[in-house]
Design a protein that fits this description.
10 helices; single chain; Fanconi_anaemia_gr_E_prot_C; FANCE protein; 69% helix; Serine Threonine Protein Phosphatase 5, Tetratricopeptide repeat; FANCE; 193 residues; mainly alpha
């Protein structure tokens, strides 16, 4: 535990992850390992949690070609329950930025947004999406964020509205875009003029 909490030991933590082959360990072990991480006192630093999010999950999630196993989903949700901000900064950002990644990764991000992430991390995911050119792949993620019906800071809501307005011509024939605009107007009716 002291190795994982000390701010100067991040190269050693990466080395330990590599030595333990955490990126390819069996998924049932991954669930147990995440349970052990949650029990650590004191909690992991942000940087240590980010390193572990990358080592434990990034390769697995980016290589998904079918829905994640129940073991992988259990490990992801347990890790997110305590370390959602570093998880989002590392893993969700990587999934959103991978143009070649398919529907399974997007579905997974949507499921995490809908069921696991704290409100501030839901906002972080929305910020990450709005920093990129909007695409059909990203529309379900924004829809999942709106489905949470969280109160968004005014500047983030303004950015969402502005992005959707600017992108309207590109999505003229998109049913998902139409659903997204309808959802936004429904959820944030009082704030959108």
């Amino acid at each position: 535990p002291s190795l994982m909490c000390h701010p100067l030991c991040h190269p050693q933590l990466e080395g330990l992850c590599s030595f333990l082959q955490l990126s390819v360990c069996p998924e049932p072990f991954l669930v147990r390992f995440c349970g052990w991480l949650l029990a650590l006192t004191p909690s992991l630093s942000y940087t240590s949690a980010a390193i572990l999010a990358e080592q434990l999950f990034l390769r697995r999630v980016l290589s998904l070609t079918q829905p994640p196993s129940r073991h992988l989903m259990a490990a992801l949700t347990s890790f997110c329950s305590k370390y959602s901000q570093p998880f989002c900064s590392v893993l969700v950002a990587a999934v959103l930025q991978e143009p070649g990644k398919g529907a399974e990764q997007t579905k997974l991000v949507c499921e995490l947004v809908e069921e696991c992430l704290e409100p501030h991390c839901v906002q972080l995911v929305l910020r990450q999406v709005l920093e990129m050119p909007l695409s059909e792949k990203l529309l379900p993620v924004v829809q999942a964020v709106l489905g949470r019906q969280e109160v968004l800071p005014p500047e983030l809501l303004d950015l969402l509205v502005l992005t959707l307005c600017r992108q309207a011509p590109a999505f003229a024939a998109s049913l998902d875009y139409a659903k997204l605009v309808t959802a936004m107007l429904s959820v944030y009716q009082s704030q959108v003029s």
